[in-house]
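Students often ask why we bother encoding 3D structure as a string. The short answer is that it lets us treat folding as translation between two languages. Here is a chain of 96 residues written in the first language.
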Amino acid sequence: MKTVLLVCEAGISSDFLAKSAKIFVEGYQAPINYITTDFAEANTYLDNGIDLILVAPQAQYHDEVEELSKSGIPVSQIPDVVYGWANGGENWLSSH
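And here it is in the second language, the structure alphabet:
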């Protein structure tokens, strides 16, 4: 099971994106678990076996992104087209 941490500014839109991705994850029986959070709480999840951190496009310039990258966990920005349309299928593909 891979665990992906989705981080946005308030945690709301990342939750919506994770719900969208869940349809594809279940359909493909992919072993991926999404955890959604905001920057204020992101560090609390780093010891939970996180395999990948995906950051919302509007949040990519936060100082916290640099701090998250120091964790040794790969950090990537969610592409605008995926995030803007809450395209969970594309998000699932980028998690692979």
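Translate back mentally: The first strand starts at residue 2 and ends at 8. Keep this in mind for the problem set.
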